[in-house]
Amino acid sequence: MNCTCPKCKASTHIDHTEITEKGTDRICEVCKSRFWLYRESFGGRALKKRGEIFCAACGGELDRSIACPSCGILYPEYIFAQATKAVPKRTVHVRSTYYIRRRPARTPLPKKAAAPKKPARKLRITNPYIISAAILAVVTLAGAAFYSSHKAAREYSENYVKALYGIKTGIDIGLKPFEKIASSSAGSFSPPAPAPSLGSKEQSRLKTIKRQVDTYMKKTDNPPKKFASAKESLNKLYGVYTKIHAFALQPPSSVGDSQESAENLKTEFKKSSRELTAGLPKQLSDALENARAKYRNLRDF
Q1: What three-state secondary structure class fits 267?
Q2: Which residue from 139, 143, 119 is spatially nearest to 131, judged by alpha carbons?
Q3: Nearest to residue 26, comparing CAs of 43, 40, 42, 38?
């Protein structure tokens, strides 16, 4: 067959039957350089991307078909030339049988006998100092709670009595002009006169007392449980007080209407005060008795 030199591309005649798979070297007659010829099976054509290949059976040039165009053999082995010597292929030896090494079965370790559980010991406090300290702590906490409760009840009682004192003082000042007219007109007839009213000094004092009463009423908003009913009676009395306060600042224009309204309000106040004193708990009742000795306005309350 006529093979092309891979270096100078000159055509060289070669006997293709002498070429084996291990390869054969030749010297080009034109460029005098050495090149190698190899023989491969049809399956190796997938790796041969470039260069000429020739049929190993007839020496004719092959194309990309599965048969030789010259001799027609199917899947022909092919011959190719290259400028360098091919690296020898590594021979892989495959064992026909294989041996699997098996590890010997492990003998199970002997189980340790579980130690019997010891019964739980009950904690016994035998130190007398620890017992004394615990009792002292309990007594201290109980004493602190009792003292705090007693202090809160005492402060509430003081604010409660001060609110009563302010209410009684404001009512006495507000109704005083109308009580004078009632006492002077009881035994003699007199012509109609304008309704009495408070002077600017009395009005200013009445407003100051009202602000103080409102302050003490706020301090009694959250009573202890045992003073809940007494707080409701105080609120009812405070409602009567606000009516008398507004009446004293702006009374009706006629004497007759003023006198009638004053008497009605005074009666309503006496009724509410009796209901309040009748339902007071002992601690509030004792506080009121002490206040009567201290404040003159509360002696007839």
Answers
A1: helix
A2: 139
A3: 38
> pLDDT tens-digit profile of 21-55?
888 888 888 888 888 888 888 877 777 666 778 88
CA-wise closest residue to 168 among 290, 299, 264, 259: 299
CA distance 56 to 38: 10
Q: Where are the domains of the chain?
A: 2-82, 150-185+193-298
How many other CB atoms are there within 10 angstroms of residue 39's CB atom? 19
- pTM of the entire structure? 0.49
Per-residue pLDDT at 180: 66
Residue 62 CB contacts under 8 Å (≥ 6 apart), including other chains = 53, 54, 55, 68, 69, 76, 78
CA 148, 151, 157 angle in degrees (round to 5)?
Answer: 140
Question: Mind listing the pLDDT tens digit for each residue in 209-223?
Answer: 999 999 999 999 999
CA distance 62 to 60: 6
What does the CA dihedral 52, 54, 60, 63 come to, rounded to 10 degrees? -60
At which residue do the structure tokens 């604010």 appear? 159
- By C-alpha distance, which of 227, 212, 239 is closest to 156? 227
Residue 25 DSSP class: E
